[in-house]
């Protein structure tokens, strides 16, 4: 009896296997189409993922990723003994936390206000204008900031501070101003983009809500407060959670280009990404750099996984997987 | 009456925001059209004290650096964008086909690249030491920029939502092979998403300085943006080095103040001109591109 069942189940599974194989063959062109992309991702993403083990090694080129001598947690011990480890973690988390709040508030406000502009042409103009900075590279943004803050000829020192009778400030040598400069520049660059997301969410709101509210005598502000904002909350929650998932990663261009390599600013501009870059390229310290990179990748990964779980609970269609 | 006032207030707010977005760019334009003397005398200002096209004459007079950098950036942008569109869609389309075995596995293969990465160091070593993307034009095209998981997911979602399964079945019944279905049915129906991904890629290549910074040694291989960065830092560097004596005097003796701003304008020029087209597709793309799992 048992053997009959066994033979039967073997037969079924071999049929299944053959069907599977046929299905694969039927789709062979599709696999072929995927091949270049898959190969690229193997080289560009997957091999470096495994290469992350060099954080535990004293890497040298001859021995490669696999055979360089293992040093255990030494790289991490050195890294976390420096004050840099704390500073860059604090800066990364602090700036991102402020960016998330400031950009959220400003993007939503801008979207709501833009939605109130009735004239089609001015609406389009405003939207185009505020989106423009998003298309500029970090290098160009550094030029713009420099043209404002250049200590000798910059607009701020020459005109704005002068008209208030304030002495010129050496912006690139004074760390205390940079948290504000970075937050403002980041908002300047990204709020226009953020507002588009909320505007497209608002076009999805049924106009009947507003019509009913108008009939009931609700003022514009009341409509915004009791209809628009509550209906935008789910989008705000999702966007915020997604940014929290990325809170261990920074906009490298912003933190690298804007200070223009000024060493005095490092305590307030060094984030994990810039630390990894500087210790690799400028100091040639593969150990420290890869340890910091490992720290970022692993903590970042855990955060993304956690936030994705949360998103899947609230709104499955926005979850990454 | 009150309603009217709020409307005016909103316009005032937006005129302020628009000015804040545009004026810094106009400031750089104004500097580039000022005479070097007036900059030294009055500093940067939004209206040139003394109008001059000398900066542009200067940079076009010996255009070698400019042309070389422009050429590199245009090459990387054109080749990179086209390749990106092809391999992104070729990977995304099969993932949208529900009948394909192992579809879930390959989707996770793509998603994992978004969730986790090995960080800069191993990536740099693989690209530079093993694949030899170093000090050649391909280093501007291939590492990092050619394919990204987000774009694959955007395209896949688009194919899933807009290409009717019955259409593909019908084409299959009529004897069209998979490749023909993709090339002659799917691609023509998907122009909007190609435009969006192409736009993202164009921007990424045009604005890229990172690959030049980490992979290129020879100045001839720099992209436009990285040449700009070098110019910005180099003048700064000179000024800092003479800081002990008299920083403002040394800055004043450097003639390049206006010409580097002219370089910046030449670099962003194409983006500004293509901007109306860009932002239309960009906004469309964002609405298409709700990434879903």
TrEMBL record, chain A:
It is found in: Cell membrane. Residues 89-307 form the ABC transmembrane type-1 domain. The keyword ATP-binding does not apply. Pfam families: BPD_transp_1. The chain crosses the membrane at residues 29-56, 93-113, 125-146, 177-199, 229-249, 293-311. InterPro entries: ABC_transporter_permease, MetI-like, MetI-like_sf. Its main location: membrane. GO terms for cellular component: plasma membrane. GO terms for biological process: transmembrane transport. It is a multi-pass membrane protein. The keyword Phosphoprotein does not apply. Keywords: Cell membrane, Membrane, Transmembrane, Transmembrane helix, Transport. Belongs to the binding-protein-dependent transport system permease family. PANTHER family: ABC TRANSPORTER PERMEASE PROTEIN, LACTOSE TRANSPORT SYSTEM PERMEASE PROTEIN LACF. This is ABC-type polysaccharide transport system, permease component. It comes from Ruminiclostridium cellobioparum subsp. termitidis CT1112.
TrEMBL record, chain B:
It is found in: Cell membrane. It holds the Pfam family BPD_transp_1. Residues 70-278 form the ABC transmembrane type-1 domain. GO terms for biological process: transmembrane transport. GO terms for cellular component: plasma membrane. Belongs to the binding-protein-dependent transport system permease family. This is ABC-type sugar transport system, permease component. The lineage of its organism: Bacteria, Bacillati, Bacillota, Clostridia, Eubacteriales.
């Amino acid at each position: 009896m048992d053997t009959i069942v066994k033979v039967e189940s073997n037969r079924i599974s071999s049929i299944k296997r053959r069907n599977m194989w046929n299905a694969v063959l039927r789709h062979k062109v599709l696999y072929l189409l995927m091949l270049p992309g898959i190969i690229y991702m193997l080289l560009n993403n997957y091999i470096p993922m495994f290469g992350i083990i060099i954080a535990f090694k004293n890497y040298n080129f001859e021995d490669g990723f696999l055979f360089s001598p293992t040093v255990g947690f030494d790289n991490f011990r050195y890294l976390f003994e420096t004050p840099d480890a704390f500073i860059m973690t604090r800066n990364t988390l602090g700036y991102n936390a402020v960016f998330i709040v400031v950009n959220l508030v400003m993007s939503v406000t801008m979207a709501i206000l833009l939605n109130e502009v009735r004239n089609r042409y001015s609406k389009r103009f405003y939207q185009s204008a505020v989106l423009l900075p998003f298309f500029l590279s970090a290098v160009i943004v550094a030029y713009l900031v420099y043209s404002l803050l250049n200590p000798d000829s910059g607009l701020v020192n020459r005109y704005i501070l002068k008209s208030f009778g304030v002495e010129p400030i050496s912006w690139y040598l004074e760390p205390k101003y940079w948290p504000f400069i970075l937050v403002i520049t980041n908002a300047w660059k990204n709020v226009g983009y953020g507002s588009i997301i909320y505007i497209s969410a608002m076009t999805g709101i049924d106009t009947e809500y507003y019509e009913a509210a108008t009939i009931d005598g609700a003022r514009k502000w009341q409509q915004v407060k009791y209809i628009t904002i509550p209906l935008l909350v789910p989008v705000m929650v999702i966007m915020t959670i997604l940014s929290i998932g990325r809170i261990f990663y920074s906009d490298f261009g912003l933190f690298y280009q804007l200070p223009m390599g000024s060493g005095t600013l490092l305590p307030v501009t060094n984030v994990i990404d810039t630390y990894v870059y500087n210790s690799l390229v400028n100091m040639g310290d593969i150990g420290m750099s890869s340890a910091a990179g490992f720290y970022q990748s692993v903590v970042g990964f855990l955060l993304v996984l956690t936030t994705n779980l949360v998103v899947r609970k609230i709104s499955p269609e926005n979850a990454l997987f | 009456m009150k309603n009217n006032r709020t409307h005016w207030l909103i316009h005032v707010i937006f005129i302020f925001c628009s000015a804040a977005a545009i004026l810094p760019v106009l400031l750089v334009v104004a500097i580039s059209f000022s005479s070097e003397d007036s900059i030294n005398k009055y500093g940067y200002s939004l209206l040139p004290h003394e109008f001059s096209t000398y900066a542009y004459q200067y940079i076009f007079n010996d255009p070698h650096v400019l042309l070389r950098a422009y050429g590199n950036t245009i090459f990387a942008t054109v080749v990179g964008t086209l390749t990106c569109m092809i391999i992104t869609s070729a990977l995304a389309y099969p993932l949208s086909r529900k009948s394909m075995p192992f579809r879930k596995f390959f989707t996770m293969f793509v998603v994992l690249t978004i969730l986790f990465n090995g960080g800069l160091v191993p990536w740099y070593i693989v690209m530079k030491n093993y694949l030899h993307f170093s000090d050649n034009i391909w280093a501007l095209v291939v590492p990092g920029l050619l394919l990204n998981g987000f774009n694959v997911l955007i395209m896949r979602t688009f194919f899933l939502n807009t290409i009717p399964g019955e259409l593909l079945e019908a084409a299959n019944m009529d004897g069209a092979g998979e490749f023909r279905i993709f090339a002659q049915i799917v691609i023509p129906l998907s122009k909007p998403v190609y435009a969006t991904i192409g736009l993202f890629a164009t921007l990424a290549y045009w604005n890229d300085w990172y690959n030049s910074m980490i992979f290129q040694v020879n100045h001839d291989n720099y992209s436009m943006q990285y040449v700009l960065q070098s110019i910005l830092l180099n003048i700064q560097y000179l000024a800092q080095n003479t800081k002990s004596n008299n920083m403002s005097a040394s800055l004043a003796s450097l003639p390049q103040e206006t010409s580097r701003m002219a370089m910046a304008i030449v670099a962003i020029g194409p983006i500004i001109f293509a901007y109306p087209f860009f932002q239309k597709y960009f906004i469309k793309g964002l609405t298409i591109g709700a990434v879903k799992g």
